[in-house]
Amino acid sequence: MHTHRFWFRLLALMIILSAGFSNAGFTQKIWTLEDCINYALQNNLDINKQLFTVESNKDVLLQSKLGMLPNLNANGSNVWNFGQTIDQYTNTFATKTVRSNNFYISSSVTLFGGLQKLNTFKANRINLLASQYDLDVIKNNISLSVAGYYLDILFNLELLDVAKEQLKITTSQSERMQKLVDAGSSARGDLLNIQAQKAAEQLNVVDAENRLYISNLSLQQLIDIPVTRDFRVEKPSLKPVQPPSEKITAEIIFEHAQKTRPEIKSAELRVEIAEKRLAIARGYVQPTLSLSGSWGTGYSGVAEQIDPTKPAVHDTIPIGFVGKTGDLVMMPQTSRYYRVKSFTDQLRDNSNQSVGFYLNIPIFNGWSGRTAINQAKIQKSQAELDLGIQTRQLRKNIEQAYADAASSLQKFNASKEKVNAQTEAFKYAQQKFDVGVMTSFDYNNSKKDLTKAESDLLQAKYDFIFKTTILDFYMGNPIKIDRE
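Above: the chain's sequence. Below: its structure in C-alpha cell form.
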C-alpha cells in the first residue's frame, strides 16, 4: 500500500515539474515582435480552421478533375430461385431450385454536357486559390493585431519608466523637505503637499504596472500561450521618429495595395467563380451526349447439354398399326443423357456486349434550368458588389491610416516641443522651489504638467509608429520594428 502511494506521489511530482518546465520555456524567453507573430501564425485556431478549408477545397478540386474521366463499374450476383420461374438463359420454365449467377461491367463517359464538368473543375480551381487568399487575410489581420498589442506593451513600458522617474524625483524632494521641516526652515504644509504628490505618483506607478500587465495579458491571449506575469518582450532601441516620404501618397499606396492585397484578390476570384457557375447553370439547358459500353455474362443451373461421356441409347417404339394387316408400326428412337452445362462454358457462351450513344435534350423541366441561370446571374452581381465593397473599404482604410499617421506626426512634433518647454519650466520651478521662492503646490503643478506632456509624447510616438507600420504593410513590406 505504501509502495503504491510512493509511486503515485512521484508521478504527480513529475507531472507538476514537467508542466513547470513547459511554462518556463515561455516565461524565460524574451519575445521579439517576429517571435510573437510567428507563434501566433502557427497556433492560431482561426488559421488552423482555414487550413482545413484549403485542404477540403484541394479534395474537391481533385474530385472534379477525376469526374471528367469515364466511369467503370462492375457487379455480380449469386441467386437461388425456389418455385416456378422462367430462366433467362434457357427461356424455359423451371420448377426446381435453380442457382444462377450474373456478372456485369459497364463504363460511360459524357462527350458533351454543356461543358458543366469542365467549368466545375475551373470553378473549384479558382475557389482553392481564393481560399488560400482568405488564409492570407487572416494571417495579415492577426499580424497587425500582434503588432498593435506589442507596441502597446512598449508604450506602457516607457510610461512605467516615466512614472518611476517622476516618483524618484518626488521621493528625493520629500526627503529633502523633511530635513528642512525638521530644521525649521520650511513649513510643514509644504512637506504635506510633497508627500501627497508622492502618494499620487506611487498610485501612478501602480496604474502603469497594471496597464503593462493588461497589455501583456492581451498579447499572450492573442498569440495563445499560457498566461503568466513573467512574460517579457524585447524592448528595442527605436529609431527617431521620421516623417514619411512626401512621394508616398495615399493614392500611391492604394494603387499598390489594390494589386497585391489578398482580400482584393479573393474578391476578384469570387467574381470569376460566379462567372463559371453561371456557365455551369447554362449547361443545364443544353443537350447531353454520352457514350456507354457494357459486357455481361451469367450462369444458370437449368442450362443443360448432352453428356459426351455417356453413349446414346438406340431403341424403337411403336407408333401405330397397318390398317389392312394389323402389323405394328415401329419407329427408331435415340435417347441421350444430359448434364448441366459447365460454369466456364456458360460464362463464355452467355457473354454479351453493348455500346451506344445516348442523347438527352432538355425540353421542359419545370423551368429549373432557367431558374438556375437567373440565380447564377444574381450571385455574379453580388460577387461584383462584394469586390466593389472590398475595394472601397481598402481605400477608406488606407486614407484613414494615412490621415492618422499625418495627425500623429503633427501631434508628436507638438508634444515634443511641449515636453522641451515643460522640461525647462520644471527645471526653473525646481530651482525656485529649492531656494524657497515657490510653493509646493505650484511646484507639484509644474511637475504634473511635465508628466502629462511626456505621456502625450509617448502616446503620439507609438501611435505614429503603428500607423506607419500599417501603411508599410499595405505597401507589401513585412511587419517589423525599425531599430537604431
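The CA atoms of residues 321 and 328 lie 5 Å apart.
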